[in-house]
Recover the amino acids of this structure.
């Protein structure tokens, strides 16, 4: 029985390790300096400085969109991210050119992974739901 429990525990640890590794290696958006949205380890949208815009409102709504607004994502936070490690309840919405309606994740907890003072990019993540949103802070 003890061997059985140890075997189950080992499998659980291996599954967690594989999921975290897949999340960290699946997309360079986790480490890229540009705004992007990744959900379930899939890059949904990536900011292109030549044809995309970014905006931030004072009430913690971050938007990234292309010129004709056919593709976009928004992150609406309960409070403005201010410190690494802070956990903020947020809504994430997006529309891709391949979709007919916007998709969303409501009320998820996003952790402030980093705040780059030079570029203004804030990285918000949710490891469990495999979400990474890189948004631009208000300056």
């Amino acid at each position: 029985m003890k061997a059985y429990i140890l075997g189950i525990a080992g499998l659980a640890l291996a599954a967690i390790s594989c999921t975290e590794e897949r999340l960290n290696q699946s997309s360079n958006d986790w480490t890229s300096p540009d705004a992007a949205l990744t959900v379930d380890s899939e890059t949904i949208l990536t900011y292109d400085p030549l044809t995309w815009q970014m905006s931030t409102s004072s009430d913690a709504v971050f938007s990234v969109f292309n010129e004709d607004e056919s593709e976009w994502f928004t992150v609406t936070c309960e409070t403005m991210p201010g410190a690494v490690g802070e956990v903020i309840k947020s809504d994430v919405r997006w529309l891709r050119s391949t979709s007919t309606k916007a998709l969303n994740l409501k009320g998820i907890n996003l952790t402030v992974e980093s705040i780059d003072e030079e570029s203004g990019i804030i990285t918000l993540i949710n490891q469990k739901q495999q979400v990474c949103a890189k948004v631009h802070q208000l300056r």
Q: What stands out?
A: Residues 4-31 have pLDDT under 50 and may be disordered. The radius of gyration is 17 Å. The CA atoms of residues 86 and 112 lie 5 Å apart.
